[in-house]
Amino acid sequence: MAVATHFSFPVNYVLSEASRSRGRFDRKLVRAVASGDSIAPAISEETKVKLGGSDLKVTKLGIGVWSWGDNSYWNDFQWDDRKLKAAKGAFDVSLDSGIDFFDTAEVYGSKFSLGAISSETLLGRFIRERKERYPGTEVSVATKYAALPWRLGRESVISALKDSLARLELSSVDLYQLHWPGLWGNEGYLDGLGDAVEQGLVKAVGVSNYSEKRLRDAYERLKKRGIPLASNQVNYSLIYRAPEQTGVKAACDELGVTLIAYSPIAQGALTGKYTPENPPSGPRGRIYTREFLTKLQPLLNRIKQIGENYTKTPTQVALNWLVAQGNVIPIPGAKNAEQAKEFAGAIGWSLTDDEVAELRSLASEINPVVGFPVEYL
């Protein structure tokens, strides 16, 4: 599928398209086209939601960039220029398609994970190159602090954040998260998040892989400083619903904390790409085995049927199911432009309540598998 990574519109096209979609047109955009300036498609506010109780607004679906630069879990243990260009295509097409929320972490593709190049470094480079072409580009960036055993206290959070900002080539990020609970010192880590907000280094703060109790404790500690806990990022998909079973989803809804869903298509298992005869390669093949994929086929067949009714792919149906749960932002990982374009098509429409319930019922017959990353719930 060919996907354009940039656009050049004549003035009359901008006028007609804008008039049809919004009943008005962006005069600033038209002036830019008329003057011959390069422009990028604007991200509509209608596609955005508030992140928890913070003032930050992000698109209803984000893009995870764990695979960018990684050669320890993704990319068949190899990273090369072809994969680099594909990742850049994923970034550009995401923005062109109306998705501007990207989630990374200091350990993705870093020396800690034996990566080829830091995901933060690549994301920062892509943002800089995009802004050189389109100066008005806005990108929402989320990254994470690794609670490594030797890191202690609030100062370690600020120090790690500043290192992340240097790699990202940014003065601040939109969302900073604790990647997992530490073995000790969690109160200090939370204090560090609060310090980051007060120092203007971040717009919002969140946690990841936090249980209901840890989530509530974090919420209350930050609340005492007048800082909302914006999000909890956990493994959540149609075939992995632990956040519902452990009370995490209910607590997020009660407290007004957005649940950010990583592995929302089960690392590719829900796309229909893999079959018992064609399992995924690398470490994922040990998680999503031939036996598991055999049990998954009836659900995948129904997902495909429902998708055909909407002219949507199984991937888009699986992501839309998550959005239908409310207060959930999926962040599927995009390796290339085609995937990014497909992910963007998961929002802007809705499954019926009956379809949501039917898919949940079918998925409940499948015992979920737990793989990497290990959760700290």
From TrEMBL:
Taxonomic superkingdom: Eukaryota
Keywords: NADP, Oxidoreductase
Domain NADP-dependent oxidoreductase: 60-362
The protein, known as: NADP-dependent oxidoreductase domain-containing protein
Organism: Brassica rapa subsp. trilocularis
InterPro entries cross-referenced by the UniProt entry: AKR, Aldo-Keto_reductase, Aldo/ket_reductase_CS, NAD(P)_OxRdtase_dom_sf, NADP_OxRdtase_dom
